[in-house]
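In full, the data.
>
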Amino acid sequence: MKRLFLVCIVALTATSCRWLFGWELGEVTHEASWYVRNLSDEPLIVKSVGFLESRERIAPGDSVRLFLFSPEEVEFEAFYLYRPVAPGEEWSIDLLTEDSLRTRRWRQADRTADGKQFFREADWRFRSDPIAGSDALKLVWVFDVSAGDLLPVESH
C-alpha cells in the first residue's frame, strides 16, 4: 500500500510540473548568466540590494557572475522580472570603490532613463553559444563598468 501511494505521488508530481512550475521533464532550458566586468584600474564592490542581497568584490580587469538562471525562453529581463521584492522595496545594484569615495546606484525603476542603465539590455554585451549535445543555449550578458561610471559621493 505504501508503494502504491508513493508511485501515485511521483506520477502526480511528474504530470503536474507543467501546471505548477511551468516546465515539463525533458523540456529544453538554457543556461543564462549575467556578469559585471570591472574595466577601471581599482577594485570595485558590486552590491545587490532588495533581493538576495549580495556583495561581491571585482578586481581590475576581472568579472563576477551576479546571476545564474535556467530559463526556457531567452530573455534578458529574466534576472529581474522573476525576483520577488517586498512591497515598498526597490531592487537596485550599488557599485562602489573599496574606500566608498565614489559610487553609483542603478535602480530597476530607472531602466528607461537617459544614460547607462544596469537594468537595460542595450547597455550589456551579449553572447549565445550552443551547449554540446543539446538544443539548449549558453547565454551570457556582460555589463562593463568603467571609472567614468562612478560618481563622487558628494554629487548624489
About this structure: Residues 2-21 form the longest helix (20 residues). The beta strands are 31-38, 44-49, 54-58, 63-69, 92-97, 102-107, 125-130, 137-145, 151-152.
